Records
---
Amino acid sequence: MDTTTTFLQLAIPAEENFSLADTLDCGQCFRWEAEGDGWYRGVVSRRFCRAKQTPDGLLLEHAAEGDEPFWRSYFDLEVSYAAIRERLCRDRRLARAAAFAPGIRVLRQEPWETLCSFIISQNNNLGRIKGIVARLCGGFGDELSPGIHAFPRPEQLAGHTEEDLAPLRAGWRAGYLL
């Protein structure tokens, strides 16, 4: 990973009610960690970055300028959630649901990682899920830089046994991962 610090600012229209914290902490993803002072660190599709919401939008540290389309897609910033909420609010039952946590965006995550993460999530709590995912990445994923690992590709898990995955402490889920 390049050690030069780069920043990318993504503008978000004010009417979108975007909340980075609600989006990353709602249980739809497991590779983002709050660092304090509004910063989160995570690895997405073999890209490490730090993210923070600012009055001007979303600030991404360690994200190359050429990566803007990737991050806009990941955070689903091209879709007007305000317009979707407006349509949903026409139905009184859906209006209550739409009013709950209006800042959450549906992340466009890599399908393989999402599948494995949600296998791990069965009958689990958020802290334990994040721990298992972190051990899976640390034990089987490529090291992108010291202490930062990519999510393992399917071929990196192929050929392993449930015993090989025992250090993950995933229990019965290990067989489903394989």
Note: The CA atoms of residues 59 and 162 lie 40 Å apart.
---
Amino acid sequence: MQISARNVLDAIITRLQPDSVTTEVGLQLPGGAPLVANLSRDSASAFKPGETVRLIIKASSVILLSGPPGAAISARNQLPGTVVALEESPVSTEVGIRLNAECTLFATISHGGGQALGLRLGSPVTLAIKASDVMLAQVG
């Protein structure tokens, strides 16, 4: 399967918590970082705890914060990382953020946003991802 999303990696489902409309899916990224996806109950019915799934997050859905996790924002997932790649253009900036030795995610932000954050290689950042922006696919 060819896909245009920049962040495509395998993760393990740690829990499924359905409510009347959606299911919260707990995930473990490579290296152990936790993440939460929010799927429709119908979509989530295809998955089970312990299953390895393909995680898909568009780089444009990743928000960057200059402080440590814990900011009062509506994005459910907040993960600390380090800037390991920067590719700037006059309009946008692609940022590689290493969460741990096994997991790097990418964000595409405005050039002005990158400048406002003072991003440099080695800068600590927090990436934030809304649970509804996390997509899952079955592996195999």
Note: The CA atoms of residues 18 and 24 lie 6 Å apart.
---
Amino acid sequence: MNLIYLIPFISAFIGWFTNWVAIKMLFHPKDPVKILGITFIGIFPKRQAQFAEKLGKLVSAELLSFQDIEQKITNPKNMEALIPQIDAHIDHFLRVKLADHMPIISMFIGDQTIAQMKTVFMAELQELFPGLMKSYMNQLQSQLDLEKIVIEKVKGFSSDKLEQILNDIMSKEFRFIEILGGVLGFIIGIIQVLLTMIA
């Protein structure tokens, strides 16, 4: 058998292997290793702090801002979704808890009075709730720094944890890159064989 026909398969293996090594070098070595005076360390372990800072800025500025959370919480539609629960709680309070704690007053409160009181309470809550939540969110924002929390969390990840997260997200893409390296290597090998045969 003419060894020239093995060239595409050798090229395919080299293409796959170099891409596999390149992907592994994203995460390994996890700790600095010196070889012939040159220090080697995986790209993600080396850049983990910078990655954490970029991710922290992205999350706080683009993905999850306090303004977004505030808009969701104070949205009238979300308040409307809570009304049945609040109504049921107020009803239970007026019919059961009030009777337990203030039995004399509860004797003078009938269904009509309870309905009127619930209407007043619900109207007051609907007016109070958005301002109350806005005030709470402002207080929470001064106490919590989303960017700092994300940065500290990502910086605190072990190299194994970071590799696991990125592999979970991009395992298909990594596999595609490996296969693509093999396919391109095979095509280059075929071209080399054709050029050799033509010459």
Note: Residues 3-198 form one domain.
